[in-house]
Automatic annotation (TrEMBL):
Coiled coil: none
Name of this chain's protein: ABC transporter related protein
Upper classification of the organism: Bacteria, Bacillati, Bacillota, Dethiobacteria, Dethiobacterales
Domain ABC transporter, residue spans: 4-228
Superkingdom of the source species: Bacteria
Gene3D superfamilies reported for this sequence: P-loop containing nucleotide triphosphate hydrolases
Keyword Cell division assigned: no
Amino acid sequence: TSIITVKNLTKRYNKKEVLCISELNALHGRILGLIGPSGAGKSTLLRILNMLEEPTTGEVSYLQQPAPVSQTGKLQLRRKMTMVFQKAALLDTSVYNNVAFGLQARKVPKQEIRERVLAMLDDIGMLALSQQRAKTLSGGEAQRIAFARALVLQPEILFLDEPTANLDPPNVELLEGMIARLNQDHGTTILFVTHNLFQARRLCHDTAFFYQGKLIETRETEQLFTSS
Ligand code: ADP
Ligand code: ADP
């Protein structure tokens, strides 16, 4: 089933069309790669799907329902989705508090927050740094915390905007492992912007190609590499 359905969507900035999609489906429990050169509209699409921006025309439905219009409806839906960006924007507080923040906002009981945060930090090899200020982390460590903060919420939908673009190979491998495990263990539907085809092949079940704002085609990733 389709978790996110996009139909006849366009986005214009100052009359310039930067996105035009007749149809796109993100299927339940699958990782969908969004691939294409810089400026193709991939980030704009993710911001629209994450409800950070409105499309100019067209619609997006979530879990087969039209996008909610009420503030409560939007808030409920937002809580099922999280996003990780290319560059981690961490709060100027401890590593622990950065990971705990979203759970606190959701009023999860303190003891459960503590267990989930510490388990997550252990998972990514950063338990010993839990009291360190996030500001003092290296780029790779900061990005691991950005992932931890998103994944600890166990979202139904995860948006990734080139989250490993600036990282060294060991960190790329670690984060790719986390993405694959989240998808396998929790069935999280993931939309993954990358311009690395090899990364798409490693992780994405399906791949959608964008060029100059247009969705060119969507295919099962493996087909891309086996057919002409
Ligand atoms: P990609 O993520 O594929 O690199 P983007 O979605 O960032 O592409 O950008 C698509 C196009 O939209 C680009 O031409 C970019 O300059 C333009 N664009 C993106 N955001 C804005 C904005 N806020 N105002 C005006 N133009 C924008
Ligand atoms: P508050 O200070 O908001 O009343 P608590 O102190 O009861 O909340 O719990 C949240 C705090 O728990 C965080 O600020 C965090 O520093 C701390 N914390 C608890 N256990 C650990 C731990 N094992 N490692 C790191 N921080 C922890």
